[in-house]
Amino acid sequence: MAASVVVGYDGSAGSQAALDTAMELASRFGDRLLIVFGAGPPGGVGDEARAHRAAIEERGEQVTSEAVERARGGGAEVELVISHDRPVEALRSVAAERDARFIVVGSRGERPLKRALTGSVPHKLLESSDVPVVVVRG
Which end of the chain is more exposed for a tag (fewer CB within 10 A), N or C? Predict the structure, then answer.
């Protein structure tokens, strides 16, 4: 199986910048590009959580379709992965399962205090990923 470049995508400006970088890296190394959307809702179980997850997954399919088209237009071999996990877990597990060379994510440029209180996807990945993480400022 060929190596891959995993990119987290949610339609934000940061994820769009990350997609550009991930496309460049995948092209440079001849890797497959995996566009990942983590649809796991925060907390909760039961019917309400399932409904929330379904809505998030539907939104994920909408926002990632443009990313897939853009990447294919750039000549990349692309696959979309919509995961039931939260974003950090989704990116880490896809990277581990699919021989990722890099995980690429966008940064919203959060202030340090907010990032410390809420935790950001890039920060959590930098602390916990076994795969190199590339953070792109949006």
Answer: N
pLDDT tens digits for 7-62?
Answer: 999 999 999 999 999 999 999 999 999 999 998 766 656 666 677 777 887 888 88
Query: Which domains does the chain possess?
Result: 4-9+23-137 (3.40.50.620)
- Summarised one tens digit per residue, pLDDT across range 48-70 is 667 777 788 788 888 889 899 99
Instruction: Let me know: does 6 contact 95? Beta carbons within 8 Å.
Output: yes
